[in-house]
Specification:
- By secondary structure, the protein is an alpha+beta fold.
- The chain has a domain of 104 residues: Nucleic acid-binding proteins (OB fold (Dihydrolipoamide Acetyltransferase, E2P), Beta Barrel).
- It has five helices and five strands; from the N terminus they run H-H-H-H-E-E-E-H-E-E.
- A hairpin with a 6-residue loop joins strand 2 and strand 3.
Length: 177
């Protein structure tokens, strides 16, 4: 019995170490991406050097708005991205952040942990973390063929994120690979 407790403690410690190491690399990357996006939006139009100061630059019409929503244009989140966003947040901050992620695209990949009666599939997408992805929108026939341990990959839209220490990300599957 003590060896099981020791094993659980080691797994938890290794998960915490891997989360710390991932944070050391992922947070700066996400911050740089956010800064780059902000700079793109704030860059003013400049007159060319050949344009006299008294002449204003020509007016350039912006293209018609894209029918794709701004949420869909953002890069797809991974399970590791979501864990990183939660890592430094208080429960209140995480609750607000989790709501802001609803509708965003997310990639998933991992082993099947469970297939439920309603056809939803629980996937372990973040080994070493207490974070799972619950996949909806898979046909009942396809779900019935899955067994525990089957590797699944694809992407979809986040419909809901719940939990603080053990995070569950609900994803409406759009593509299975």
């Amino acid at each position: 019995m003590n060896s099981n407790r020791t094993l659980v403690a080691v797994v938890i410690i290794l998960g915490m170490i891997s989360a710390f190491l991932a944070g050391a690399f992922l947070i700066p990357r996400l911050q740089e991406r956010a800064k780059a996006d902000t700079k793109k939006d704030e860059t003013p139009a400049k007159a060319s050097p050949s344009t006299p100061a008294s002449v204003s630059p020509p007016v350039v019409q912006s293209p018609a708005p894209s029918p794709v929503s701004p949420v869909a244009q953002q890069p797809r989140l991974t399970c590791a991205d979501i864990v990183q966003l939660r890592k430094g947040a208080t429960q209140l901050q995480w609750t607000e952040q989790a709501r802001s992620l609803e509708g965003r695209e997310a990639e998933f990949g991992g082993n099947v942990l469970q297939v439920y009666d309603d056809g939803q599939v629980l996937v372990s997408s973040c080994p070493g973390f207490l974070t799972t992805m619950r996949l909806a929108g898979i046909s009942r026939e396809r779900a019935a063929q899955l067994t525990k341990g089957t590797n699944m990959r694809g992407w979809g839209k986040i419909s809901k994120i719940t939990g603080y220490l053990a995070v569950s990300v609900e994803v409406k599957v759009e593509k299975l690979e």
